Amino acid sequence: MDHEAEQHTPPDRLKADAIGFVDALVIGLNSTSPAYSLAAAIGPMVVLVGVYAPGVIIASFVPMLLVASAFFYLNRADQDCGTTFSWVTRAMGPWAGWLAGWAVAMTGVLVVGSLADVAVTYGLLTAGLDDLAANELIRQALTVALILGMTAVCVVGTEASARVQTVLILAQVACLLTFAVVAFYRVYTGTASLGALRPSVDWLNPFGAGGAALTGGLLLGVFIYWGWESAVNLTEEVANPESAPGKAGIWSTILLLLTYVSVGVAVVAYAGTSFLTENADEEEGVFALLATEVLGGWDWLLLLAICTSALASTQTTIIPASRTLLSMSRRHALPKSFSGIHPRFRTPHTSTWWVAVVAIGWYLLITRISENALYDSLTALSLLIAFYYAMTGVACAVYYRRQLLKNVFDFVFIGLGPVTGAVLLSWLLVEAVADMADPANSYSGVSWFGLGPPLVIALCITTVGVLVMFAQKLASSRYWSERPGVADQPGGRTERDPDSTAHERS
What's the whole-model pTM score? Predict the structure, then answer.
């Protein structure tokens, strides 16, 4: 953005036209942490569905694409960096909007520490410093330093973040493609060292292992695709904000599908189901085990892929959380202190540092309990993710309800698709709650108040959110005076505006 345009940027707005469509797409891709997510999920998926894991990955893509459609059309109506918070408020009122925004913000707090820990661990392993990687004190100190460093990059500017992300995604994709190509080559030449299997089209059938197994697989699928909407959280900072961020979100889910399926098939083909089942509890460590088997002396490439994946996601995961807090503060749904924007860099530096500090505190606290407790906190993510994705899908249909019966296209892509995605995610949410209620299904295998730790963590986060919400309402009722609106055309013009731009006029 040129200097003249920057001078006309309102003091409470982020830097407009800071990045383009490709930059937003890269950030959306990196936010999912492809290498790390696939490494963490492929073992448990194979335990559930065997060779049909690639099919489950495809099935998991369906609700994500349907919800991505909701993000696209709601972004056309409201280019607010608070995305789900702002949209649900606009369509369904302040109470629903506040809870949805809280869920988005808390996902970042829960996961940033874990991602940074993985980045540090695999960075040390890549460099051959295995002893340092095993030293808990050193690893945690480096993790905290990494979170602070990546937060500083986010504060310095969205352009700087985009440049870093471009380098990281190129390194990650290059490493993953090298691994997949070598794995396929060794399978088809008969030189694979494990229980190799020849790939079959049947592997793409998500129903091959039965309905119950599919349910568990889809729950894992929600995790591996989560994060693509970070591109849309940058809507105030992307050129052509009415359409580019939404398109970046949709295309990121499609590119993720292609990446996950191709690498997933390569992993299953090379390792076979026995190896992956036996090492399912290794989480992302399964790729470390496979690296030497597939690449030999070049095993550092796969370790580097996981490192860059987690490193990139450490940075990008801060984006939706910080910008949601900014939006909530501008709208008087949180204290005004969260809405500070850096006078030089035009980034939400106050909310960004808040996310980092709280995430560090959570990471250090939960690792004091146990490493398994850290994994339990990540499991709790699926509840928050399914909740706010489902809310976004419903909000799209509710907000555009007068448009839905005007033609088949709008009915399918603005109404039926997003609602179907919301229903699927709501079903997964219910299934996840039932599963997490049993302590035996948690990583730690212990009981917290008679329930599994992941469910207790999710309930505690929700309880804290409700308390903060009521406290803020008592402090300032302005946000809660807003009323839902309805769009009278696909572009999002609101007939009764719920004062969504109140923060601009205040």
Answer: 0.86
